[in-house]
Write a structure and sequence with these properties.
The structure holds three protein chains of three kinds.
Chain A: H1 8-35, H2 47-53, H3 56-87, H4 94-102, H5 109-119, H6 126-133, H7 146-174, H8 178-186, H9 191-219, H10 223-228, H11 240-250, H12 254-281
Helix pairs in contact in A: 1-12, 2-12, 3-7, 3-9, 7-9, 9-12, 11-12
Chain B: H1 2-21, E1 25-31, H2 37-53, E2 57-63, H3 66-78, E3 85-88, H4 93-99, H5 106-111, H6 115-119, H7 123-126, E4 130-131, E5 134-135, E6 137-144, E7 146-150, H8 151-156, H9 166-176, E8 189-191, H10 200-210, H11 228-242, H12 256-264, E9 268-273, H13 277-284, H14 290-293, E10 294-297, E11 311-320, H15 327-337, H16 340-350, H17 357-362, H18 364-368, H19 370-379, E12 382-383, H20 391-407, H21 412-427
Parallel strand pairs in B: 1-2, 1-3, 8-9, 11-12
Antiparallel strand pairs in B: 3-11, 4-5, 6-11, 7-9, 7-10
Helix pairs in contact in B: 2-16, 10-11, 11-20, 12-13, 20-21
Chain C: H1 4-32, H2 36-39, H3 54-61, H4 65-96, H5 102-111, H6 117-130, H7 137-161, H8 165-173, H9 178-206, H10 210-215, H11 224-229, H12 239-260, H13 269-274
The chains are: A mainly alpha, B alpha/beta, C mainly alpha.
Chain lengths: ~280, ~425, ~280
């Protein structure tokens, strides 16, 4: 603890908390109340949740979200860590590689959705064009075939989002004191052991952070999937965010949309709480 | 004496105050077609004219894209704001009315002539906006969906005009699906179908209507997709895609824009469209010479049947926001945009028919245009999509089950059964 | 022990990474130089058969894209700076102080992100109209800051945690206040983290659509992302224009990154301890 006045901490966190509470406090409470029917045209009570519990679409959406998040985040970790390690070296043209590394992430997710929708178009898209040029089978219905659509969306989001993880890990790598590496080199330890025993332990907190933040982000993802498939074909690519959007803006069913949102919030809390407890426990 | 001067001062004060109050009314008008090139200019011109004729009212224009329109409107209106006057297509009208977002215009209509005022509009145009005898909006454009086809490609395949029966139509589509060069892989298809959400509601439902089927029973309480006609329509669509392959691959992703593109690039010979298809498709590909190459024909019917309703109607309507702080001025604007003079303008600039019978039948330019005449004649044979607030859910169920049948993840019978079941569940 | 093979492997992987990252951009670029017809033709072409810059011309002159660009720059930049500033303060507070309610506040911050924006926009919109910030860039900046702040705080706190507390304590012994500790000991060491967080916040704000769509109705105040999605119209989707606009839109964050990435360098913690 810095200084003998822990209460000084209040001043530091005040601006952030004020901003969040003032701006999001009322809307968040309003949303939760809406899920119970308060403020909507419908009845007050657990009706929306009861409907949710019996809705097969909800369970499939839940399944899609789970598959999507697990697949995307794990690939992000692999690609992100790999790239961060590469970029941490003394390279020539390092600045160039760093820019290239972050490029996918500069695409806003809505726009990314449009671009990939176009690229994976069955008739006029680039992917099938390249496959055709290479002489391979080229009439894949990437976004229209239920068995392919989810995988396609996952592939697109893996591409777009991995620089985020890379960025966190790279900054984390930069913070590892050089003397640890120098000591290892003097001791003649090989690269793999150095990685395992110096890099990874030092990086662990940042890896956890990156995983949790990325998981939260991907759970909530809307734009990319909306632009590419809108949740289709059928509901094979629909995740919880899309379901909220559909119920709220297309079906005008406020309470039901709010109840899905509350479920989404609960899922995210389940993801976040273990990490938070771990992080808080690890503190000296 | 003193009393008189006091009175005159008071009068001056009142008049001064009143004229200040009359000073400037600021309205906002929001329309997704303000965002379109040609249509936007047309709307802006007419609104400028309105401002000239109504000094003291200024109208701020707020374009918004169709896909995002309801997001923006519903968010704003729920929060007590939103544009004073706005336009909607046929889709969310009943929802907006049910949510109480649009103002009841009946008092203003009464003041403007009541039945005489409304008499010029097609009765069917007033249906979607009338609930419990109250009129909530003024229809602007009404059109019916028809076949839009490429005359040149038809001639090359040896077909005079699109068939009037589904059976013949199917054969024609097979004939039109071929290789342009004659010896390579297929690169031209008979028709395109819209199976993606954007534009699905108008086009595929026309086929269902053409078969004499409908989605709901007339009283709107049960699904009508269990009739033999509905099954025939459903199977027909799936056959076109799966069996005949007269539709280009990737059908489940084609939306309205994609369909226009396919027709413009001459990748297909037929699409379902309406009067706007001419200017839009022509603009997409000037080399096509759309105004001369394209033709229109009514939606086919089943041989031997002569169902009165055979297509779906599209309508653009103007509404006044319930939250509007200047309802009088807003009404003026809404009325101006749907007056016969403006209606003629909409046809001149955008090739769009009017919701006013007098304009559609009386305006010589409309009578002289082959496409306009075809569509105008079909209005009598068209119906709107079911006017229940639950329609978006029902449409979604239909589209998903149709897609499932098309890609083969469900058998057709299974898809239809599921559809009927889902519709009945939604309507409970 | 930098053997030649070691470096070939590294550069090989980097080139593979570059190719993987670039291929959609290549397609975008190629499409942006095609005519409307070619871009939607079947069979699709990979390189433009007819090379044209018409799409860029349209995007630049029409639709006020330059304006949207500048709006986005302003809004995203302000959001990023605001997030970073508040984030540093808040992150320091969480990292170095153990006050009552600290854990709850931390969780609350993260919890604010779990409710989807679609439900929050409406009530927020209402609040903004009440205070007169409706249809203003300020209202949008505040809204987007709430998007970027929680992640920023957690990220920066993570970096500050990595700075040994002995540093602060040493400075304190020398008589520094906590704020001076923050400024002189902690900040320099976490600069790479702050830069990373600022970039992240900037990109997050840049890519937002929902808040920009609902909070801004004046066409002159629209952001770039909104402007690009507006190219998907009811009647026409000008793919080449969308590609051109996206190329322009993505280049800005990339340029910003080029400028800022030099701060993502090795920190000098060790020297601070010695010195």
């Amino acid at each position: 603890m810095v200084g003998s006045t822990p209460r000084a901490g209040y001043f530091y966190v005040l601006p952030a908390l004020l901003l969040m509470i003032v701006i999001l406090g009322f809307p968040s409470v309003a949303s939760v109340l809406e899920s119970f029917g308060v403020g909507t045209k419908g009845p007050i009570g657990l009706h929306a949740y009861a409907k949710l519990a019996g809705d097969p679409e909800f369970y499939e959406t839940l399944r899609n979200t789970a598959i999507f998040v697990v697949a995307v985040v794990s690939m992000h970790l692999v690609l992100g860590l790999g790239t961060a390690l590469l970029l941490n070296q003394e390279l020539r043209f390092r600045w160039l590689f760093r820019v290239l590394a972050i490029l996918p992430w500069t695409m806003p997710d809505i726009i990314g959705g449009l671009i990939f929708r176009f690229m994976f178009d069955t008739l006029t898209g680039g992917v099938n064009a390249v496959l055709g040029a290479l002489g391979l089978a080229s009439a894949f219905d990437w976004l229209g075939d239920p068995t392919l659509a989810l995988g396609t969306v996952i592939a697109a989001e893996v591409w777009r989002g991995y620089p985020y993880v890379m960025l966190i890990l790279l900054a984390g790598l930069q913070a590892i004191p050089q003397d640890q590496y120098e000591a290892a080199k003097l001791d003649g330890v090989n690269a793999w052991k150095t990685f395992l025993h110096i890099t990874v332990p030092n990086l662990k907190p940042m890896i956890y952070l990156a995983l949790v933040l990325d998981a939260i982000w991907e759970c909530r993802l809307f734009g990319m999937i909306y632009g590419m498939t809108g949740g289709g074909p059928g509901i094979s690519t629909q995740n919880l965010s899309l379901m909220v959007y559909k119920q709220y803006f297309q079906f005008f069913d406020t309470a039901y949309a709010a109840s899905v949102a509350v479920v989404l919030a609960a899922v995210l809390m389940v993801l976040a709480v273990p990490y938070v407890r771990l992080a808080l426990r690890d503190e000296k | 004496m003193k009393k008189m001067s006091l009175l005159s001062i008071a009068l001056v004060g009142v008049v001064g105050f009143a004229s200040n109050a009359l000073a400037e009314i600021k309205l906002t008008y929001s329309d997704w077609q303000l965002a379109q090139e040609v249509w936007g200019k047309s709307l802006n011109d007419v609104i400028d004219q309105f401002e000239k004729e109504n000094p003291g009212i200024k109208v701020a224009r707020e374009p918004v894209q169709l896909a995002q329109r309801d997001v923006r409107f519903s968010t704003a209106i729920r929060a007590g704001g939103g544009p004073d006057v706005f336009a909607l297509d046929a889709n969310p009208v009943r929802q907006y009315i049910a949510e109480g977002w649009v103002r009841d215009l009946t008092p203003y209509i009464q003041a403007a002539g009541g039945k005489d005022f409304l008499g010029d509009f097609y009765p069917i145009s007033l249906q979607p906006v009338t609930v419990d005898g109250k009129v909530y909006g003024l229809p602007m454009n009404t059109v019916a969906m028809t076949l839009v086809y490429n005359k040149k490609l038809f001639k090359e395949a040896g077909i005079d005009a699109p068939a009037s029966t589904w059976e013949q139509f199917r054969e024609d589509m097979k004939k039109l699906t071929r290789s342009k060069s004659g010896s390579g892989p297929v690169d031209q298809w008979g028709l395109t179908l819209v199976l993606a959400p954007a534009g699905f509601d108008l086009r595929v439902t026309s086929i269902v209507r053409g078969f004499g089927a409908d989605f709901l029973t007339p009283d709107g309480t049960r699904s009508a997709m269990d009739t033999p006609e509905a099954k025939a329509a459903f199977n027909y669509i799936v056959d076109l895609i799966q069996v005949d392959k007269s539709v280009p691959p990737g059908a489940t992703q084609v939306d309205a824009n994609g369909a226009r593109r396919l027709l413009a690039n001459q990748t297909v010979a037929v699409k379902i469209g309406t009067t706007w298809s001419y200017p839009e498709v022509s603009a997409m590909n000037p080399a096509l010479d759309g105004w001369h190459t394209l033709g229109m024909a009514p939606i086919p019917r089943s041989a031997g049947k002569d169902n009165q309703t055979r297509t779906t109607l599209f309508q653009k309507t103007v509404f006044v926001n319930q939250n509007s702080k200047h309802p009088e001025a807003a009404w003026k604007l809404a009325r101006y945009l749907t007056d016969p003079a403006a209606m003629r303008r909409w046809f001149d600039d955008n090739n769009m028919l009017s919701a006013r019978r007098s304009v559609n039948e009386g305006y010589e330019k409309i009578s002289q245009s082959e496409s306009a005449r075809t569509v105008a004649a079909e209005i009598e044979h068209g119906a709107f999509l079911p006017q229940t607030p639950k329609w978006p859910q029902i449409l979604d169920a239909f589209r998903q089950n149709l897609q499932a049948a098309v890609v083969g993840s469900k058998s057709r019978d299974q898809a239809l059964d599921d559809l009927n079941r889902q519709i009945n569940t939604i309507l409970e | 022990m930098k053997t030649g093979r070691h470096w070939i492997a590294i550069y090989g992987c980097l080139l593979a990474m570059a190719a993987y990252n670039l291929w959609p951009f290549f397609w975008m670029l190629a499409s942006s130089f095609k005519t409307d017809i070619e871009v939607t033709s079947f069979p699709a072409t990979i390189f433009p058969r007819t090379f044209t810059t018409a799409a860029y011309g349209r995007v630049w002159s029409q639709e006020g894209m330059v304006h949207y660009f500048l709006n986005s720059l302003l809004v995203s930049g302000a959001t990023a700076l605001l997030s970073a500033a508040i984030g540093i303060l808040c992150g320091y507070g969480f990292s170095r102080f153990r006050f009552r309610g600290r854990n709850v506040f931390m969780v609350l911050l993260l919890a604010s992100q779990v409710i989807p924006g679609v439900l929050l926009v409406g009530p927020y919109f209402k609040m903004m109209s009440l205070v007169g910030l409706y249809d203003s860039l300020t209202g949008l900046i505040l809204a987007q800051t709430t998007l970027t702040l929680p992640f920023s705080v957690w990220m920066i706190k993570g970096y500050i945690d990595g700075v040994p507390i002995e540093l602060d304590q040493a400075a304190q012994i020398d008589g520094a206040t906590s704020f001076q500790c923050l400024r002189h000991c902690v900040l320099p060491s976490i600069l790479p983290g702050v830069v990373a967080t600022t970039i992240f916040a900037f990109l997050l704000a840049w890519g937002d659509l929902l808040w920009a769509l609902c909070l801004i109705t004046d066409p002159a105040k629209q952001t770039m992302t909104l402007g690009i999605t507006n190219l998907v119209g009811q009647f026409r989707v000008l793919w080449s224009d969308i590609m051109a606009a996206t190329v322009i839109g993505c280049s800005i964050p990339a340029v910003a990154y080029v400028i800022l990435q030099r701060y993502l360098v090795q920190s000098s913690i060790s020297s601070a301890i010695k010195g």
